[in-house]
Write a structure and sequence with these properties.
Elements: H1 18-31, H2 39-43, H3 49-60, H4 71-84, H5 88-92, H6 100-117, H7 137-153, H8 159-168, H9 178-184, H10 195-201, H11 203-206, E1 233-235, E2 242-244, H12 246-254, E3 272-274, E4 277-280, H13 290-304, H14 308-311
Antiparallel strand pairs: 1-2, 3-4
The protein binds a DNA duplex (21 and 21 nucleotides) through residues 2-3, 6, 13-16, 35-37, 49-51, 53-55, 57-59, 86-89, 100-102, 104-106, 108-110.
Length: 314
DNA sequence: AATATCTGCAACCGCCGCACG
DNA sequence: TCGTGCGGCGGTTGCAGATAT
């Protein structure tokens, strides 16, 4: 037999009175909340523990900031929502003194409508005006990046294969290789991906003269799988960041077949943690033309090699 | 001024994962 | 391994105040 619903036990529901608030605050300040289930009786409240916890965490807690959201907070919410979806508690951890409930309400009553008015789908964060069902490679890349980021944040340990299968409806080629499959199961947080913002910030316009394998906006992918010899990744003992060397990168590019990588496939696996949250993604994409890809990467490195965020990696 | 509609948000509900016996 | 209790989370509701007609 289950627990009795609160109304069957004579517990009060609905808006809290100032007297109830005072009792709850006084009790928690003196004793801490302890077990929420037993708190109402000890505090002299005719409420269920769950109601007390909610009232405290969303309203009475002293470290809560109330009032209008700043522009910066709005931007943060939108960016994090694109990254994390409706994971309000996760989003709230990046907005000091704001509760998940408050952020959720603000999203539902303000930001969602505003994005819709701007022609942006509040769920996918994509423009509704993009009528072309064959999205540009750039959009595909960005979507893939966001999806992978979100999935990684959710704690998936097998991001590569899951994501790849969603895109291509088949396992990634390297997953057929036992050694590589094993290594991909425990991908670290790779710092490799600094390369991508380096490119995007400088620079898609600067790269306009480059020839790409398939599309001007689609950088080819490079396989940066752990355990490839020579090691393409190492951990900086000072910063504890994962790094990749330029030499290793080109070794992987020059002779992928020696490393168990399908010659016709470039992959990029990039992730970076910054300011406590994932700002870059693990991304996989198939690029058929290996030779074009190699020359393209060379061109990119020449162009953006001095860019700070890019050169810090290579 | 009266009524209808909209908006914001506190609070509730149901579900889930984890800990524990 | 299973059942139970608890805390936490996201979706939804309902009410009060604001605004429109």
């Amino acid at each position: 037999m289950g627990r009795s619903p609160s109304f069957e036990r004579g517990l009060k529901k609905g808006p809290w009175t100032s007297e109830e608030d005072r009792k709850l605050v006084a009790y928690v300040e003196q004793h801490g909340h302890g077990s929420w289930r037993s708190l109402p009786i000890k505090a002299g409240l005719q409420r269920c523990g769950k109601s007390c916890r909610l009232r405290w965490t969303n309203y009475l807690r002293p470290d809560i900031k109330r009032g209008k959201f700043s522009l910066q907070e709005e931007e943060t919410i939108i960016q994090l929502h694109a990254l994390l979806g409706n994971r309000w508690s996760a989003i709230a951890t990046h907005l000091p003194k704001r509760t998940d409930n408050e952020i959720k309400n603000y999203w539902n009553t303000n930001l969602k409508k505003r994005l819709t008015k701007m022609g942006i789908d509040p769920i996918t964060h994509k423009s509704r005006t993009a009528t072309d069902t064959n999205l540009s490679h750039m959009t595909q890349w960005e979507n893939a990046r966001l999806e992978a980021e979100a999935r990684f944040v959710r704690g998936s340990t097998n991001v590569v294969s899951h994501f790849y299968q969603r895109i291509h409806c088949s396992p990634p080629p390297f997953m057929t290789n036992n050694k590589l499959a094993m290594s991909s199961l425990s991908l670290p947080c790779l710092d490799v991906l600094k390369a991508w913002p380096g490119i995007t910030s400088c620079k898609l316009s600067d790269l306009s003269g480059l020839e790409t394998p398939k599309d001007q906006n689609m950088p080819p992918m490079v396989n940066l799988i752990e355990n490839v010899e020579p090691p393409s990744l190492y951990k900086d003992t000072t910063t504890q960041d994962w790094e990749i060397s330029k030499t290793s990168l080109f070794n992987a590019v020059e002779s992928p077949q020696d490393k168990g990588i399908d010659q016709n496939v470039f992959e990029v696996n990039d992730m970076i943690f910054q300011d406590d949250y994932l700002t870059e993604a693990l991304t996989n994409h198939l690029v058929k033309d290996f030779e074009d890809g190699k020359s393209y990467w060379s061109s990119i490195l020449d162009k953006v090699g001095n860019n700070s965020s890019f050169s810090s990696v290579f």
